[in-house]
Amino acid sequence: MRLLALDTATPASTVAVHDGDRVLASRRVTDASQHAEVLAVLVRDVL
To answer: Taking the domains of the chain in order of start, what are their residue ranges?
Structure first.
């Protein structure tokens, strides 16, 4: 099973895909003012 993780609790927006053993892909943007704008793009990039 794969897990899609989203983290917007800090100034960075981070998205990752994990398969239970390792991180398959991850992306991070550090602009605190753009969580909503970049979240869909980050998800698309890791999938």
So the answer is: 3-46
